[in-house]
Design goal:
Layout (H helix, E strand, L loop, with lengths): L4 E6 L3 E6 L3 E8 L2 E5 L7 H11 L3 E5 L5 H4 L2 H7 L4 E5 H7 L27 E3 L4 E2 L2 E5 L8 E5 L4 E3 L4 E2 L5 E2 L9 H4 L4 H12 L5 E3 L6 E2 L2 H11 L1
Parallel strand pairs: 4-5, 5-6, 6-7, 11-14
Antiparallel strand pairs: 1-2, 2-3, 3-4, 8-9, 9-10, 10-11, 12-13, 14-15
């Protein structure tokens, strides 16, 4: 494992791959191999591939939760290194990967914040809320970006919440900007939508919360409740 990457197992199916102490990708075990959720910043491909090798599985598909650069930055390098890998993202955020930063009719007119990185790779198909990718149910999670998605593992109710929440210092929603880790909140596009998403994800009653920034949280319900209260 490269020094800047650390892999940690959580439960039977989830491996958190942390880069530089503050940004996460996840490997999810499936019967046919591994699903990679997000790719961190540019330069993370070797560490992610090393983590997959240590896990003893082959990355079959890459799911991008949203189009910010700290989540898609190593996608091109991984797609090049993994012939035949399936790349998936929501149709809404897929446009950002091409450099199209226009808003859809009816979307809240607010500033797109954070780094939207243009990449060469194109998705094999786009994600639809309610469908499953292996054991992962796709859940719409807009607000941080217009087309962000979360993923609920139907086997053990692990929720990979992308940047709807963060957990550096304590669990927070990205509908507000906490002093302990302000970056994810500062990158949120539309805070009222992000707060509604936080409530909807809490209603899923996850057994484990895995976020884009911060440690995995077991039995996160009360912490999510407090985070929503602070942002309301």
């Amino acid at each position: 494992m490269l020094r800047s990457m650390k892999a940690t197992k959580h439960g039977d199916h989830l491996i958190r791959v942390n880069r530089l102490g503050f940004v996460n990708a996840y490997l999810v075990r499936e019967d046919d191999g591994l699903t990679l959720v997000d790719t961190t910043m540019p330069g993370g491909a070797k560490g992610i591939l090393a983590a997959a090798g240590e896990a003893g599985g082959e990355i079959r598909r890459i799911v991008l939760t949203h189009a910010h650069g700290d989540h898609v930055g190593s996608t091109d390098a991984l797609v090049e290194a993994l012939p035949g890998v399936e790349l998936l993202i929501s149709a809404r955020d897929a446009r950002f990967l091409t450099g199209d930063k226009s808003l859809d009719p009816g979307e809240p007119v607010d500033k797109l914040r954070g780094s939207y990185q243009k990449i060469r790779s194109r998705p094999a198909r786009t994600l639809v809320p309610g469908e499953r990718v292996g054991s992962l149910e796709i859940v719409a999670a807009p607000g941080h970006t217009p087309g962000q998605v979360a993923l609920l593992d139907t086997r053990d109710r692990t929720l990979i919440a992308a940047d709807a929440y963060s957990s550096i210092g304590r669990v927070e929603t990205t509908a507000r900007i906490p002093m302990r880790f302000p970056l994810a909140g500062m990158a949120t596009w539309h805070r009222p939508t992000a707060l509604q998403t936080a409530r909807e994800l809490r209603a899923l009653d996850p057994a484990r919360l895995a976020v884009g920034h911060g440690p995995v949280v077991e039995a996160p319900g009360e912490a999510m409740d407090r985070a929503i209260e602070r942002a309301s």
